[in-house]
Amino acid sequence: MMSGTLVEISQLSKQYTLSGGFFSAQKRIIHAVNHIDLQIFKGETLGVVGESGCGKSTLARLMTRLEKPTGGSINFKGENIFSYSGEALKSYRRGVQIIFQDTYSSLNPRKTAFSMIQEPLTIHRLGIRSEREERALDIMERVGLKKEQAHRYPHEFSGGQRQRIGIARALVLNPELIIADEPVSSLDVSIQAQILNLIKDLKRDFNLTYLFISHDLNVIRYISDRVAVMYLGKIVELSSNENIYNRPLHPYTRMLLDAVPSCDPRERGRGIKMKGEVGFAEGQGCSFQPRCPYRAEICKHEPPLKQIDEQSFCACHMAGTI
Q1: In this structure, are residues 199 and 180 in contact, taking their beta carbons and an 8 Å threshold?
Q2: Which percentage of the chain shows pLDDT scores above 70?
Q3: How far is the CA of 121 from the CAs of 103, 112, 116, 177, 180, in angstroms?
Q4: How far apart are CA 98 and CA 96, in angstroms?
Q5: CA atoms within 13 A on the CB side of 275
Q6: C-alpha distances out from residue 293 to 271, 273, 283, 321, Å
Q7: How confident is the model over 117-144, as pLDDT tens digits?
Q8: Angle 204-206-208 from CA coordinates, rounded to 5°
């Protein structure tokens, strides 16, 4: 059950400056995250979906303090995480853990599964050695790994088993929030189902909150309570799982849903097709309007998201063009 705000993101921005190359002195600014406002409620799974390059992983790195923002704030239980240092930062990182996408490069090939799962306990100096060992073995079993596999190295595991190690490593510190950055995208479909079910079970058993990032709409639909749709660093639609999939309002959301393959031949070729090139819209208008078949004059000036009675409305919908 959701109760209270765990994370409040306000006007969060992250810009990268790219050089123009050897023959050009002109620099280009990329808005990876562009003035995002977002809340994560305790006990929920908030799904973030969008195309590659829309800023999902940058948002995850900002929330874990692996990147510094250009502007804005992230408040965790009422405190700005970018003001943390020393022990306060260490405590925050104990409470917020991340599961990475790549099941191989995220694990140290020179360490056994057991040592990697136990390592966070050692870093944070939690318990004596025997207690840390007992905790690590217990978590291994909770994620579906056997004690006999404890002293194996990453290359001796399958992709799904390596991801279970990553989940165990994130879970061993008993965090409040877990950020899952495309945790099943590199796995076979049958293994994806197992890992998703495991993530759901762990949420219930450990009273966890998730920020779940994916480009797969079917995965997001299965795992999430609410869904935020990102496009070019902005949240263009935010609503409940049911509303997003049964009553999508933003054209970009509708296009993403229309792009999902269907087994029904009658459904093929239907829906809205994306046209034009990806580009940033000028001003405060909807970032999707250069590619939107429904764009109207209001889209150049109004923000892409309006919150009315806890529902999500884009400027196009309010203008009556959809």
Answers
A1: yes
A2: 83
A3: 21, 15, 10, 17, 20
A4: 7
A5: 7
A6: 12, 9, 19, 10
A7: 999 999 999 989 999 999 999 999 999 9
A8: 75
